[in-house]
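Pipeline run #58 for the internal structure catalog. This entry was flagged by the ingest filter as a single-chain record with no existing model, so it goes straight to prediction. Upstream metadata was stripped on purpose; only the residue string is passed forward. Reviewer on rotation: M.T. Logging verbosity set to normal.
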Amino acid sequence: MNSNESVNKQTQLIKNRIAKIEEKEKQLKARKRAELNRLNQQKRKQRTKRLIQKGAELEKIQGESAAQITAEQTRDWLNSKITVNRQLILDHESLKNFTTHVTFDDGTSVYEQYQKSQTPKKR
């Protein structure tokens, strides 16, 4: 065997090893894709379950007419509830601020007296 044949055999062996490595790489990439797909599917299932649970709770709040209410009407309904709640908070803060500045003859504020009346009495 001359050196040229020896070099050709070594070259072929290296090429064969490279081909095996490339095949393993393809298999690993396919496995990675499959695992990523499983993970994404799991995330989708979790999201779907969460959406169903939240939707069920919302329908309970909306009552018997919930089935006739569209998604847009639900959004508007929620926005109106949030707006009312924000206004109530603002009104409460305004009233609290006002009653803090209105005082009795003993120097206590109306708000302080209200707070005292709301604390449970010890027996």
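catalog note: The longest helix spans residues 3-62.
catalog note: The chain has a mean pLDDT of 92.
status: ready for reviewer M.T.
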